[in-house]
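User: My advisor, Dr. K., asked me to get a structural model of this assembly before our group meeting. I'm new to this, so sorry if the format is off. These are the inputs:
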Amino acid sequence: MMQYQDSSEPKTPETFHIALLSAYAVGVHGIESLIPMPIPWLKIGLANIITLTTLLLYGLKAGMTVTLIRVFIGSLFGGTFLGPAFVLSIGGGVASTLVMWASRNLFGRLLSPVGVSLLGAMTHNISQLFLAYLFFVRRIEAIMLISPVIIMLGAITGAFNGIITTLIINRIKEHRENQK
Amino acid sequence: MKRIFKDLTPSGIFNMTTFLDKVLFLLLIALTIASFFFVKRFIQPGSLVRIMSDNKTVYVLNLNEDTAVSVKTPLGENVIEIKDKMVHMKEASCQNKLCVHQGWIDRGAIVCLPNKVIVSVGGGGGDSKKYDAISR
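Assistant: The format is fine. Below is the predicted structure of the whole assembly, which you can bring to the meeting.
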């Protein structure tokens, strides 16, 4: 990683880490769309593992950068750029990143990454439902009918992502301590 | 790899989460279960009975309220009755009376072609929604 460092432009290792994490997020996002799901619009939101890891290790600016890069590049690869799915994706991504950062600062050690991930998943789903209602569906009964299912799936996938994030962060912290 | 499986046991997951995490998770699951009941109640009044005469909506009635209405057109008269969440064409001035013979329905439509009267049941939607989805 460090061998790419250009002497003309001084860069901190952190910038490289964020670039690498963005690439991971795009990759995970792409691979996730290949996993067959029982319901077509259901997603585990695996890319949120990367967003959350970045957010917890490097802060809001880095987390938001990774989210935006993931949404833009991911939608360009997926062919949904500037389409309805793109609007939902960017709205949900930005809102959930903000809420995860806020909940981390508000609750501190009271919430583990699992709790932060749960709140992030909820925000992602609710903001997407809101955007879908605002721009595409315009039928409140359809939104109300689907929301219990979405809340439940969000709780399960959010918890799963949070557990994976905890494992990743624990490993990274261990590695950092070993290097000292 | 072995460590990953060790961490993913129930006790491993229990140790990595805080009290507030567990409360949050249980709250969301409880909310889901509660909302299944809530949504059912919310959806119920959505069943509307729409009566159209000569392509114009003349009545929009609630399927849950028992009532009877009469629709007079230049072509004839139809009486539509709602009872026990079912609709039927009670009387019709037309010749064949196919609509009367169709009997009670709780979904779909009754059409009286000679008098150009259409009774349709279902959906809470208005006139604006003619398509389920539009693909671009």
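One thing worth pointing out at the meeting: Strands of chain B lie at 48-53, 56-62, 67-73, 76-83, 86-92, 108-112, 117-121.

User: Perfect, thanks a lot.
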